[in-house]
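During the reporting period the student researcher (J.K.) took over the structure-prediction task from the postdoctoral fellow and processed the backlog of single-chain submissions. One of the processed entries is reproduced below for the supervisory committee.
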Amino acid sequence: MKRSMFKAATAVVASVAMLAGMAGCGRTNTANAGGDDVTTIDSNKASGELTIWAMGNEGDLLGDFVKDFESENPDVKVKVTAIPWASAHDKLQTAIATGEVPDVAQMGNTFMADFSNAFSEVPSNLDLSVFFEGPVENYKVGGKQLGVPWYVDTRVLYYRTDIAEKAGITEAPKTWDELKTMAEAMQKVSGVDYGMRINASGTDCFGGILPFAYSAGASLTDSNESKWTIDSDAMNRALDYVTGYYKDGIADVNADVNPGANIADFVAGTTPMMLEGPTAVSQIEELGGNDIKDKYATVTLPAMDSSSDMGTSYLGGSGLVTFSEAKNKDAAWKFIRWASQPDVQAKWYTVSSDLPAAQKTWSNDALTASKTLTAFGDQLKHAQGVPAFTTWAQFSSAADRAFEQIAKGQTSVADGLKSLQSEADSIGIGE
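J.K. obtained the following structure tokens:
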């Protein structure tokens, strides 16, 4: 694939017609209430009123956190508005159409293409080398760097070490063959229903199997990101492997996909392996209490075969952007630069549990002290997401349906992928 990119799972894509309408609305492009975009960030302190929109948990926590930025910049006053993810897309759309945008906004990865015409380019002297390569590329649209990574989200393999030991397994799997052998062995342990959890239905179930596709060498698009390339040998190989878990009864094709069901099964030990992100750590330990902490591990994804040291994961996260119509772009970029510093990202992790996008932050004591986080830092070096297409949500929904049909034996892998390729071609890549 051309890029390594991160995906925010909750994004909803606006229609091309709607985006075109938005592009024609709002004020004339003026910076700081009337000037050009900020091409370089100067060394002066930030000043004036700075408005920030942040979503979900980040919106709830950022208001107190920005007091450090205000302390370092006494002449700036920061106002944070918390916005639920469910309404974020519509609220951003309305703000851009009316020209009443914030100075800074948290931007889900799959929102980038939707609103790219409204963003300012990242100043040339904002150092992006501190970040992992994948997240940086994810905030680039049409060859322009329009955002900066803030935090990342990746999936690794969770497994119950106590159950693995009962099955005679003392080492984490390194290849797909070893993973399946381990799942089969763990399934034979008393109390275990299924050796591995791979959701066959529900929202983003196709995204859940992308790590297998990426590890097999599949790409969702051609090298120019000009068309979908779903029906490939690599994708067929990956889905043949995944569907083998259902055919052999190692994974439950009808597993409960309601939120928290996977965590409950993992803690209960009825399904002792799964691919999950970092939030599962707190969910597992909240449900299982102190008793569970020494009974599971997180490790990098197994590779397809011994030719690689690990598989390639599917990732998400959010970045920070400012807008062409923002009133205080100078302070906006100074805030974004501040939020990008490794020590600030480390402190933000302690407050929010968001995984830092800055690579150097991973050597901070706050992260190295946690044995469950090591795998996430390593996995970020082998990460791939989805293309920044305005049609992603439409394609993702079609892919979920196609994968469910394949998983449940309603169509073959080969026929299912051919059908999905045809639908993807009809959907297109947007503008």
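The committee noted the following: The longest strand covers residues 313-321.
J.K. will present the remaining backlog at the next meeting.
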